[in-house]
User: Fold these one by one.
Assistant:
Number 1:
Amino acid sequence: MKTILKNCKLVTAPYSPEKLYDILIEQGTISRIGERIREEEAKVIDVGGHMVLPGFIDMHCNICEPGYENIEDIETVSRSAIRGGFTTITCEPNTKPVIDNKTVVEYIISKSKAQALVNIYPYGSMSMGCEGRSIAEIGEMYEAGIVGVSDGDEFLDSAALLCNVMRYSKMFDLPIMTHCEDRSLSGKGVMNEGYTATCLGLAGMPREAEEIQVSRNLILAEITGARLHIAHVSTAGAVSMIRDAKKKGLAVTCETCPHYFSLTEEAVEDYNTFAKVNPPLRTAEDVTAILAGIADGTIDVIATGHSPTSLTEKNREFDQAAYGISALETAFSICYTRLVETGVISMARLTEMLSSNPAKILNLVHKGRIAEGYDADLTVIDCSEYYHIEPKHFASKAKFSPFAGQQVKGRTVYTMVGGKILP
Amino acid sequence: MSLYRKDFFGLRDLTAEDISYILSTAETMKYILNQKNKKAPHLQGKSVIILFYEQSARAKLSYELAAQHLSANVVDMTNSAHTMERESLQDMGQLVDQMGADFIILRHPMAGAPRLLAECVEASVINAGDGYNENPGQSLLDLLTIKERKGGFEGLKVAIVGDLIHSRVSKSNIWGLTKLGAEVCVSGPPTLLLPEIEKFGVEVHYDAREAVNNADVILTTRMRLETHDKTFLPSLDEYKRFFRIDHNLLKYAKKDAIVMHPGPIQRGIEISDGVIDSPQCIINDQIANSVAVRMAMFYILSQMGGGLV
């Protein structure tokens, strides 16, 4: 089975964005890229000059299955991913049961192969039960197919455990993903600490709760030489510490999410629980620092931070409402509108942050680039289309968004996973 | 006027003009309260539901009396935290609403709860205290008491001393007093002052003497050590060493300064016995004004389209 995508605009080197290319796909793999490819018996699809990007890879995503199928499942999350242009997503280990042994890893991988339209790679939990006490069977999980080790967005109290996980994982060259939050400081907080929280009478989570853990984890990464990946960076202080660590030559990478560079704590005004996320939305100064970190390469990756929850759990007192955001379907448009249209970064750099960098960090060979021999995971984008974000049309079960009603530019036309076109 | 609204959440939403209007209405209500027959017909045929998720003595009593003086039917639904787990606030609101409530007086341990309730009911919601956010009723009675004693707010120096983090009325007072043109100083242990409080346009002093210096009014807060995280304050004994309002501290204030407290008071902790029993401490005036202010709140909401008209 051969397919030719005709008239594709490619944005990454060595291709010229001024020209249009054809991509020949054989057996789910890109076999040739060139101008005016002719091939007998090939199905021809005319892309019509739209931008074709390597399928996006979401490094930080919750698929909620097994255990929380009522709020999201493999099928809905993969449809949601396709809508957003993501061809590969990951699964945080905080499922039920927790991904802390090879059996759960095998279950998720086999179920994904059977049901998911996209590639799903699980992370393994650092500790048994995500409880932060004893180290999980990282080696067996590695053999079963995990792409990294994560704390599952849980507060990790024990520096000793993290230090040992970092040392141990070096055997397998696995990245260590950490959610940075010192819960003794964030305490009962539910939003960023500061003026808005004081106005609303809500308890705050100070920036130092994140930054202290970032600094601790950087120190441990330096000592152990492990590949540390800091998840969802939200503060100016965290960006600057990571920038310094990279200058020193540490093997550290980090990500942020679209909401951390496009929204501030003011989105919480009127107790808007759709803007309740962890780490919390910060201030305009933090947004500026994150944009600078994206521009100068300090921040490697943009992940969605997709963490679905039910509307019932959102429609509550702010203190009690669940954290979470439905982000797969809005991520690209927000990035394009806020980063590329405004000139913060180029389209090529955005592609790096959404595709090739995550592939590198997660050791996904043959993914994240459009090149001969790579998997035919592609996303076709119409960059001229303006539209309004309407959560009720989301494919995800979590039909809400703090971006609801906002006008954005750039939309996925269709997505190709392993050479197969998906709506 | 922005008072044209269904609900009453706090002083943050009000203009100086709105607050003045409520206070002058409360003065009219005081006239009714001074009659032999304390009944007025303004809420006749209306029902008022007191939906409290926290224990309270004085707030509940004053709302109940206020509603009864205005001829409303009053039902008390004091719930425990246990009820909250069983039934969501919205479901409870719908229940009360469907039974034909015109006013729901909500006291709730979480900030923003009155807004959440108001969105799903037709009745007017009055915030009687939400988490550590606001307590507009208590604040308005403080303001009325200050106005009666001092004639107005412009140029007045008000010191708020104590635990501001856990005092919702203090925050309502800061909104109100700064809007009305008073100069506000706050003082207390730094651990108990609100984050970025200076952005509210108030002066912050860790030394109570500086805050009280030349003050016309001193507002104190309750010190509820038992509810705090133990990292905030070593002991009440140490607190009173630095922040108790006693005659020594009062020397720094204006001679005719008044001292107020939202109650219930712990004698000798927030304010010394000597000051409590002196004429400068006007806690009884505050209590006397509490009913009138709530009557004004009911009256204004019912006039401005509140309730099922």
Note: Chain B touches chain A at residues 12, 88-90, 108, 110-113, 115-116, 130-134, 168, 171, 194-197, 199-200, 229 (CB under 8 Å).
Number 2:
Amino acid sequence: MIWILLILFVFTEAFLRLFATPSEMWDHIVRYVLSDVIINTILLVSISSFLASFIGFLAAYIVTVYDFRGRKIFSLLLYLPLAIPPYIASYIYSHMLGYTGIIQTFFRNQWKITVDPNWFTYSAMQMGIFVFTITLFPYVYITAKGYMQKYLGNYLETARTLQRGHLNILLTIALPLATPAIFAGFTLIALEVLSDFGVVMYLGIPAFSTAIYRSWISLGDFDSALRLSSILMIFVVVLLLYQHMMRKPNSISMHTRIRPLKRIRLTGFQETFIITLFVIVLMVSLLIPVSQLLLWANVSFVNIRWNQFGEMLFNTLTLSTGVSIVIVLIALMIANYTRLSKSWLAVLSSKITLLGYSIPGSVVAMLVIFFFITLKQVIPINTHTTLTMLIFGLILRYLGLGYQNIESGMRKIGLKFNEASRLLGKNYGQSLISVDLPLLMPSLFAAFALVFIDVIKELPLTLNLRPFNYHTLATQVYQYASDERVVESAIPSLIIIAISALLLWQVIRWVIKEDN
Amino acid sequence: MKRLFIFVAVALTVLAGCGPKPQTNRQVNVYSARNYDVDKNMFAAFEAETGIKVNLIEGKGDELLERINREKADSVADVFMTVGGEHIYFAQQNDLLQDLNTAAISKFMDENLYGKNWVAITQRARVIVYDKIRITNPTIQTYEDLIDSQYSGKLLVRSATSSYNIALLAAMIQREGIEKATAWAAGVVSNFARTPTGNDRDQSKAAVAGLGDYAIMNTYYIGTMSVSSDAEEVAVAAKLGVIYPKNTHVNISWAAIVKGSKNSAEAQLLIEYLVAKQQQTIYTRQNGEFPVRDDVAPSDLIQSWGSFEAEDIDYEQLGAYVIEAVKIFDQVKWQ
């Protein structure tokens, strides 16, 4: 509860602006900027979230319902694109398709053919949608797969007895059943796209995050920036409440007996088709970006500054691990509170935790700085040589992500085990620790992993709130990329991706084992 | 995968090699938006030579300045460094800077490159580039030429969110007034080869690829491209012809002592160190920037582009036109 009050305290500042008299600059923004920003943001968010959800759901459905060669390995690999930060993917693909990129240079240097560069042109919006789709689809893949594995079995048997066709089962049974799970993943994707700054800034897409940044930094109008942020937050709250209502009707199905799912064995053309499909998805989302980074790492190895690299690695690992653990603990407490209290206040306050996830990091950073400047007048704290501000900011930003996961895990378990334990004489707290927690472990680890891979690649907060001489791999990527030295940013990028991928791999294998 | 492990192993070895450093009481706290390896090496050298420890926070210039402004009385920053003269206005308006001793500096620097509380460290020009193999006889001589209708569909330039473009237009407002600057920006938009996307380097690559004929870009990036790890980028840099338009827009990187600095003597020393002859030579040779000293020659690459006449900018006032510039970009739909 205290944490929620803190969050509210920080964000109230933003909301209050909506009711103040608008500045003269606001008229300018409404007249020339706002409509473009709203249209572009809606297009970008809705199309990329939709496409990513489509791929994520379809992939989850196929690995859940069918059996084919390599199914196991595919089902694991499909989590990994999440390890690739969207901004890095946008640099990679823009460069690959560009004049000095591998495709055009290959034709030019190997075959002496100059290809028409117009073949490789794309609009910023297309590239943005592409990048978000390939890097974020695992969010839906994760939620939909977990859900379908548990609940699809019951319906599938019946459907097969009724001789329903493949497409029919997919559209009339799996899709409606998995809708709440898809929407949960969809929401995470939408929030991540809304708060993105790196991709839209690099590609030049007028979006909320860049508009907020510009009003504040370039136009020097902090009021308008907060006003834009609060409009954005209203959208987000509506989206979150809608998601909350979406999942209600299905809560009944959770109490039915879970029947194990029998997979259909694919053969011949069907099998080849599915495997080809997965290979293409994984090539585009994983293999190609990583290979490109490896090539760049190879040529930039001698040209980057290696001093402090060990320190950066150490900072990166300790910060990401520490923050993720704290977030999991706080999220667990909030989820436990909302599970017991069914009031609207509890629902709303739990949704507020997600606010930090949806507004641009640089705005959160400044709100945190204001907060600490105010706080310092009351209690003297050292913010320049300690990590206090940075850790606070990161928790504020990513708490919602951890919470979302833990809360859905708690919902799956329900209160019945806890009640049973209490009937056997233990009190609520004891039951929580001895009965609920072990059941929750997979959700806790998943939450830890998802928060970790977001913190490790996080930029605006780390950049703005870190103490003196504190560098991480992400700030190193920023250093090179902001200097337009994308090739030189390959090695720190690769290390970020490798750490995230290793963690995801371990946690997922472990979670799957636990779930079974 | 094996390679990754090698990287990790190398990193860990570096970590193991980081022993305790010699302790010193003298230090200087730097907020810098110049996030370059060259600067870090220079700070390390300064530390080794003077025994003054340099503590560094890097970030974006305007955000760091905003932070100093919010922290004001409480700020621990001693030196602020950034790219872009347009920030001086904000810093001075908000009374964030402390007077410098410019006696030593003034002897070898142009008058518009320092003020009572700031000093330029390097310079960069915003020029027009083209593929000198494809276009043997470039016809553009001024920024104003760019809006001629014969270049319709031929211009490449990055998004208006770039601070380089904002400073370019702000300087134009300062020199020519709002009306002319608006007409110019609108003219450029109508000659766009494509909707602005990518950074400065991307514009020059697109010019060499033939997606447009002329690209607006910062000289600094030609310099860094020519020493890129990527051989293809080096090849592009070699193909670029550079046009210095009449009244070439030159922007500065600058440094200042933050008001209330508790280590102002050390801060003064660091700033003097950065504009010393040896460091200025390093900046121009290794980082592709123009030196600020009369007695240091620009790098060979820069000299190969010939000489030019820079526009007359009052850097202290440049920032006063930034808001107007951003508004114009919005009005003419230069995204």
Note: Confidence is low (pLDDT under 50) at residues 1-23 of chain B.
